[in-house]
Design the sequence.
């Protein structure tokens, strides 16, 4: 027998890029349950988005400038980071065309060593 086992889509971390926001599925939200802010980054060379949770302690210690903090809102089944300018930068760099596609969906992984969710575009 040569079964190819299917993956459980509910357990797969997914980030969807819309024209105005990034939406994380429930599995991806698990890493952001105790935070209200994240850092967003783009690695142009490796075609990756980085989403780093910012802890309350890091906020209290002013480790990151307020201009780099992005609010994450968590619902029961998804999380949302609204940032139209970040998505615009993504669309310019990676040629997203929201007039053709309403959204772009990508799998994500979580780097526990660096505490960053990595979205491979």
Sequence:
């Amino acid at each position: 027998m040569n079964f190819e086992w299917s993956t459980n889509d509910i357990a797969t971390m997914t980030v969807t890029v819309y024209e105005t926001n990034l939406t994380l599925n429930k599995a991806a939200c698990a890493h952001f349950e105790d935070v209200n802010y994240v850092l967003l980054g783009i690695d142009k060379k490796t075609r990756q988005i980085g989403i780093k949770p910012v802890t309350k302690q890091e906020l209290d210690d002013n480790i990151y400038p307020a201009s780099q903090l992005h609010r994450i809102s968590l619902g029961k089944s998804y999380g949302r980071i609204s940032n139209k300018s970040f998505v615009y930068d993504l669309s310019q760099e990676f040629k997203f065309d929201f007039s053709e596609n309403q959204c772009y969906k990508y799998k994500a992984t979580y780097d526990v060593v660096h505490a960053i969710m990595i979205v491979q575009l």
About this structure: The chain is about 15% helix and 40% strand. Residues 26 and 77 are 5 Å apart (CA to CA). The helical segments are 26-29, 56-60, 84-94. Residues 14-120 form one domain.
